[in-house]
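Why do we bother with a discrete structure alphabet at all? Because it lets us treat a fold like text: something you can write down, compare, and reason about line by line. To make this less abstract, here is a complete entry for Extracellular solute-binding protein. Read it the way you would read a sentence in a foreign language you are learning: slowly, and without expecting to understand everything at once.
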Amino acid sequence: MTMSSKLAEISRKVRKTFLLGMFFVYMLLLCSCTDSPLDPDKPVTLTMWHVYGAQARSPMNILIDRFNQTVGKKQGIIINVTSVSSTWNIHDELVASAREEPGSEELPDLFTCYPKTLAIIGNSRVLDWKKYFSEEELQNYVPAFLEEGMMDGALYGFPFAKSTNLLYVNDTLFEPFSRETGISYADLSTLEGVFRASARYYEWSGGKSFFMYDDWMHYAILNSESLGEPFFEKENIRWDNPALLKLWRPLAKASVNGQLWLNPGYNSTVMMMGEVVCGVGSSAAVLYYNDTLTLKDNSTLPLRLTILPDPRFEGAKRLDIQRGSSLYARASTPKKEYAAAVFCKWLTSPEINFSLAVQGGYMPVQKEAFQRLKQAEYADFSHDRYKQAYKVLLSLYETSTFVSVPAFENYGELERQFGAALRDVLSSYRGTRYSGEGDPESVVRASLTQMKKRLAVPFQ
């Protein structure tokens, strides 16, 4: 299925679920807007920046168009999307706007970002959504998702679509390897099993990488904390963390022996090139997989996926990362703030929220939408891989504890630097014989020392 056909299918699904829920949503909005300062004859325009699909007909843009044509038109609200970019770009652009740097644009009325961005912008310029949501309304949302947007008792970031990390396995490459070696999908349920499989695949394939991880900071945070050790102390990495050696040792061994992919890039792209067999990435990455595997010689094979939970070490507590930016509104006039709240309530209503979530690999934020997800039939999903992804997501929702990344001011830059440092440091040791000869721990400790030195530079 091509990207254009995917987006056409997304559009069809969104229209179907939109019409089913529109009357209900509109009536709710009318009931809650009896004191509305809006005037349909003099509509207010809200500018918006978001990161949900760089395509012109992204799932988010499709929904915004529908809002403008229906509820927005009736109440006098126009949402004008003026920027669709990546998570990192929108972070930099918002920070530049908040600081009024030369050449930057004015801070938009609505924007999506992570708490790490708000930590730099400051909350004085951002709307507290509690001003327009009652406690009774907030009880309809998943508490852990709301909590991420809280600061000092105020709700600045409103959740509308959350994701987590999943393990994507390229069946086309894995199954021949599995048949000949006995390594099974069950082996990929723990990190010990993944690293054993990586070593075996390297031998079996004649020196190819088996595994990759999109965000190595997530690997470090989750596996440290799942072993009972906080990864950070205040805003600093705990280099004396006793769990650090446990999670670093197999990573260093596999990396220097060429068993892991250490080049930059997302697993969805690298796996479709046949460079690795499996990788951990966002559940939202399910949108970007094609049905074809294109090898270096330009030959193609069908791409089939199996989707599994992000593996943990044996005996570790089940923790999973909570990903996905939240919706923020600039503190403004009563009219603009009210309009922002109308849009936020519409976007997070059960029907609309479910529609957005299932087409993009996200978890809905409304409890009612989650209940519907449990009852969803195959017809609700545009591809079998979506069905697989949601089976795993539902299991994690019921059995795992979701944790957010830290929100301190320099976290975003630290996350970026950590991944680059890890790839550089471990790549520099590639080819070093990590074996029983001599002291194999020297590679582990030397590479950790190099990481500490690289990340000791103050962030600006």
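What the structure line is telling us, in plain words: Residues 3-32 form the longest helix (30 residues). The first strand starts at residue 44 and ends at 50.
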